[in-house]
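Quick question, first post here. What does this chain look like in 3D?
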Amino acid sequence: MVRQGFLFTIVFLFACPIAFSQGGPPYYTTDPGTPGNMQWEINFGYMPFLYEGNSLTHTPDVDINFGVGDRIQLTYENAWLRVWDQGAPAKYGLGQDNVGVKWRFYDSGEEGMQFSIFPQGFINNPNHAAQRGITPPGSSFLFPVEFTRKIGPIDLNLETGYNIVHLGPDGWFAGMVLGHEFKNRLKNLELDVESYTSGTFHPRFAQPLVDVGARYKLKPPFILLLMAGRSAARFASDQPHFVGYFGVQVLLPKKPFESDTESVQH
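> Answer (accepted):
Ran it through. Tokens below.
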């Protein structure tokens, strides 16, 4: 049960919603981007966290974001969870409601620096998921700060924050995504690499992850989201030997992608 408690604490620290750029789904690190005024950004993803002898899977994870003005994002996220422990049948249930507000309080343009804060609350539903060992026993409050800047052809995205947990250990997290969005022959493709670590203070525990991923613009309004990785502490039994995100992002109302617009203009 202690190990499963760590699993839930760390996995729910990962549930950080979106914004299209380098951060956000399919990655755990979030960036300062928002959908835009009266715009919707919806992500549907299959998210496995595979450990030695147990696993937790979001089947699927649904992440809904709405832009209020150019710098504010309202977020709701939840998932249908599958929890499996070796020697026992899998358990299924609805995860915690994640409600958040992102505010990009500093923006010096696409080529400059951007900062945001993204407070989020995680609350159990009245579905006995906590009693059945599917979700953490108490609610939590996440307070991250995001930063992004373009450095030549590379986009840098950083995030760090604190997690206050009721009925559990408080936690922390820090992530970095480096990526490049292709403009020429592969103009619909973005490739990224991520380093993300989350943990708890008392008891002291950390889960460092490394992963690679891609976004591929399909026909508007759909973007394909792919990511695969694992723990950097590869020989530890309490670290995941595989994590991933496989899904699609929907941008509404439907409009041409930026690269499509550029190709028409030129």
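Residues 13-21 have pLDDT under 50 and may be disordered.
The chain has one domain: 2-265.
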